[in-house]
Amino acid sequence: MILKALFLIVVFAPFLAHSVDPVFNDDVLGLIVFKAGLVDPESKLASWNEDAESPCSWDGVKCDPLSHRVIELALDGLSLSGHIGRGLLRVQSLQVLSLSNNRLNGTILPGLTRLGTLQVIDLSGNNLTGSIPGEMFRQCGSLRSVSFARNSLTGRIPDSLSSCQTLVAVNFSSNQLSGELPLGIWYTRGLQSIDLSDNWLEGTIPEGIQNLYDARTVNLRGNRFTGWIPKDVGGCYVLKSLDLSGNFLSGTLPESMRRLVSCTSIRLGRNLLTGEVPTWIGGLTSLESLDLSGNTFFGRIPESVGNLQQLKELNLSMNHFTGILPGSIANCIDISVLDVSQNMLTGDFPIRVFRPDSAVAADSYGNLEVLDVSSNAFSGEFPASIGTLSNLRLLNVSANSIFGSIPTSIRALNRTRFLDLSKNKLNGTIPHEIGGAVSLEELRLEKNFLSGKIPTEIEKCSSLTSLILSDNNLTGPVPLALSKLSNLEYVDLSSNHLSGSLPKELTNLSHLLYFNISHNNLEGELPVGGFFNTIPHSSVSGNPALCGSVVNDSCPSVHPKPIVLNPNSSSDSGGGSSSSPNRHHKGIILSISALIAIGAAASIAIGVVAVT
């Protein structure tokens, strides 16, 4: 009997201990078992001690102040690997589980939502594989937010998602999920945010989206959806952000969209949408970002866009818009990005953007950071007032018919990183003031009618990595200043009228990947060393006077100076008398080869006499 009693004590001791102290031991045991499935290379979980009575002081653990049960486990960004073990199922009061930005692998633990108190699951930014377990959402308890973003999950979005009516936020973005959207997805009525972007989802976007009457964010970007934008999308009255870009959606903008008056961001770029942009777009006065790029919209840009006075970004590029750029855009005083490139816009260069008629429009200058009007049919003179756009980071007016000279006000663009004025009809010289654009990383002026020298002030643009000046009428030498631009990677000076020799210091440009000086009038020896040891022949051709191994033309050797013999000089004559200009002695100049020939002839003559 004694032995039997001892056996029962040993067997049931864990359960007795559990009943004595249920507050701590289940949590400690569960977390220690969970830790056993992890690899912790930086010992971030060193404080997790299996002998501890309470886990409340452990790193990443938060307890309820009254019950002392674990309610939050936050182990984000700790470089943890391994799998998500079943030990977590013992942490019965857990409300927040956040394991984002680690290296966890394996599959998602299906039973997580059995923890009836669990409200937040964030497993984003790991290496999880497999499918999303359907059972997670059939009995989802108190679950409000779930994120499996940036993993390698596959399969379909489970149909059971719509049965979890407590959900407020769902993020399955940046995985490899495929198939069609569940038909009932829009009936999770409490959803405020849904992000399924950057997956392989396909099929049509089902109608019924208006049932998400609380939705603030809908992001389906970067999938393979076809068909039309849901006609009832305008029923999402409180929607703040709609992103359907990067799909294969077709048709026109649905009329109901005019009711999205609370929307701050609409992104529909890179689809197959068509038709004219309706004038009611100007009624969406809360818009801060409007992206319709990469579609086949046509007709004129509506004047009503000027009513969008909160607008910060307007991208209408890569469409078929015609007509002029409406001057009303100057009313968008907060705009920082304006991209209308690759359309068929005509008329004078949009001077109003630079020369406003009102003080209100003048205020917009301080915010504009990106201006891209390239690849249109704009004409007119390049505005001298460009310098007032002092916050520009990118200015691209290439492939138009802009004429005139580059203004000296270019010096004020000291924050501009990318400047492209190529493929226009600009003339005159490159102004010395270009040196004031000290932040330039890429300068493109090719295919214009620029003349004069490359200004030495270019050396002040110390961040320059790309310099393209080809197909102009530039003259003078390649300046030594280029060799001081230590970040240069790409240089094209071809098809100009440059002359002189190349500075040998160019070999110090250690990052150089491309250097084209073909079809100029350069001469002398190509620099030896660095990139120039492997420069292709095509990059130096068309310079007849250049020499070096690359052009298969050896440079002429240096000839020794001739010896001057003065027959009238004597060893005892005064130091400078024999060379005095008053004496006018005629010197005899013989080269070394002539002396050798004379010596050889003398030897032959002596030999003949000796034989005779």
SS-based class: mainly beta
Largest beta-sheet details: 20 strands, mixed
**Ends: how far apart?**
146 Å
CATH-derived topology of one domain: Leucine-rich repeat, LRR (right-handed beta-alpha superhelix)
Low-pLDDT runs: 1-20, 356-364, 567-612
Oligomer: single chain
3D structure, described in words:
The protein has 612 residues and is mostly beta strands. It has a domain at 380-554: Ribonuclease Inhibitor (Leucine-rich repeat, LRR (right-handed beta-alpha superhelix), Alpha-Beta Horseshoe). 9% of the residues lie in helices and 21% in strands. It contains 4 helices and 40 strands. It has a 20-stranded mixed beta sheet, with no helix packed on it. Strands 27-29-31-33-35-37-38 form a 7-stranded parallel beta sheet, with no helix packed on it. β2 (61-63) and β3 (70-74) form a beta hairpin. α1 packs across α2 (22-36). It starts with a helix and ends with a helix. Mean pLDDT is 87; it is low at 1-20, 356-364 and 567-612.
Write out key terms for the chains shown.
612 residues; mainly beta; Leucine-rich repeat, LRR (right-handed beta-alpha superhelix); 20-stranded mixed β-sheet; seven-stranded parallel β-sheet; 9% helix; 21% strand; disordered C terminus; transmembrane helix
Map the helices and strands.
Blueprint (H helix, E strand, L loop, with lengths): L1 H19 L1 H15 L1 E2 L21 E3 L6 E5 L6 E2 L13 E3 L4 E2 L15 E3 L22 E3 L21 E3 L6 E2 L13 E3 L4 E5 L12 E3 L4 E3 L14 E3 L6 E2 L13 E3 L4 E5 L12 E3 L4 E5 L12 E3 L4 E4 L13 E3 L4 E2 L13 H4 L7 E3 L21 E3 L6 E3 L12 E3 L4 E5 L12 E3 L4 E4 L13 E3 L4 E4 L13 E3 L4 E4 L13 E3 L4 E5 L19 E3 L15 E3 L22 E3 L1 H20 L1
Parallel strand pairs: 3-5, 4-6, 5-7, 7-8, 8-9, 9-11, 10-12, 11-13, 12-14, 13-15, 15-17, 16-18, 17-19, 18-20, 19-21, 20-22, 21-23, 22-24, 23-25, 25-26, 26-28, 27-29, 28-30, 29-31, 30-32, 31-33, 32-34, 33-35, 34-36, 35-37, 37-38
Antiparallel strand pairs: 1-4, 2-3, 39-40
Helix pairs in contact: 1-2
